[in-house]
Specification:
The chain has 341 residues and is an all-alpha fold. The protein has 2 domains: 54 residues; 247 residues, Helix Hairpins. Helices cover 92% and strands 0% of the residues. It is built from 5 helices and no strands. It is rod-shaped, with a radius of gyration of 61 Å. The protein starts with 7 loop residues before the first helix and ends with a helix.
């Protein structure tokens, strides 16, 4: 960044500093005091202007009477004392304010760091809650799939059980029909026997043959009945097993429903935690913005106080120069009187 050009005031200040140190205020010395900036031509021009102004001031002072010069000297001394007191008080006051502002700034910076750390912790907690929520959603979806599969299997088993019940009913009906047919057949045979006994003895042998055939048929029917009874027992056993399996599936379905309910409750609780964390995060962000604004206001006050201090230092320097010029005029006047005497 380019440096600003030198001014007559900066040249005058550098010359006075060199003079107070007992150093000859040459152009090179002044340029070194100014930080090796400014051209020698400009420094020389400002020095000539300052010498011309001081010469005019001395001529003007020569026209003043002794009483006026004495009053001016006293006023200058009083002004110097008051200015020194005001500047001392102002400097002390500004230093205290700057110290307080620095303390407040340090405290606000610490609070801001603490709030930032809390915000980071809340962000981490929020991330963990979101991950946990995703995990619970996946687990919930898995439980839903299992529940759907269990419901489908339960429906299939109920359908199978219904079919088996229908088969059992059919077999019972067939068995009942067979028994009725057998009874009817026995009644028919009985009637036929009674009728055949009353018939001619020649038909006895034919009837006996028919009886044998009927006995064989009866044996076959009884075998069929026995087989039907066995099938009936087996189907009853299968129906009992299916009923037990259905009860187990209903019990599992109830467990899955309870787990699903607990999962939903946990999901609701986690969502509430997430909302609370978001609310806290918004409050912290608002607090951080407010602290930033207060910090900017403090910085602005510090800059204003520093600028005011610079102005007071400048005024003090000007008053010191004026006092110095007045003192020099007084000394020159005394020396003129001594030489005249």
């Amino acid at each position: 960044m380019a440096r600003a050009g030198i001014t007559k005031y900066s040249v005058e200040k550098a010359r006075n500093i060199l003079t107070s140190k007992g150093v000859n205020p040459s152009i090179d010395a002044i340029r070194v005091e100014l930080g090796n900036t400014g051209s020698k031509t400009t420094i020389s021009r400002y020095l000539k202007e300052l010498e011309a102004e001081e010469s005019v001031q001395l001529e003007d002072e020569a026209l003043l009477s002794e009483g006026i010069k004495d009053i001016i000297a006293k006023l200058a001394n009083k002004l110097h004392q008051e200015a020194t007191e005001v500047i001392t008080k102002s400097e002390s006051h500004f230093q205290e304010e700057i110290k307080d502002l620095k303390t407040n700034n340090k405290m606000l910076t610490s609070q801001l760091n603490q709030r930032t750390k809390q915000l980071e912790e809340l962000q981490s907690m929020k991330t963990q809650l979101v991950d946990s929520n995703h995990s619970l959603e996946s687990e919930l979806e898995s439980q839903r799939v299992k529940l759907s599969d269990s419901s489908s299997l339960n429906n299939e088993l109920k359908s199978v059980l219904h079919e088996k019940d229908e088969q059992i009913d059919t077999l019972k009906q067939n068995h009942q029909n067979s028994r009725e047919s057998l009874e009817h057949y026995r009644e028919s045979i009985k009637e036929q026997r009674e009728q055949e006994l009353r018939q001619h003895e020649q038909q006895v042998q034919h009837l006996q043959g028919e009886i044998r055939q009927l006995n064989q048929t009866l044996i076959v029917k009884q075998t069929d009945i026995t087989n039907l009874n066995k099938d009936n027992s087996r189907l009853v056993t299968e129906a009992s097993n299916l009923q037990k399996l259905n009860l187990n599936l209903e019990r599992q379905n109830s467990q899955y429903t309870s787990e699903l309910k607990r999962t939903k409750e946990k999901e609701f609780s986690l969502n509430n935690d997430v909302e609370i964390a978001k609310s806290k995060q918004k409050k912290l962000e608002c607090k951080m913005k407010q602290l930033s604004k207060e910090n900017e206001s403090y910085k602005k006050d510090i800059d204003e106080k520093a600028l005011m201090l610079v102005r007071l230092e400048t005024e003090l320097l000007i008053k010191n120069e004026l006092l110095k010029n007045l003192n020099i005029s007084g000394i020159n006047e005394i020396e003129g009187k001594d030489s005249a005497g």
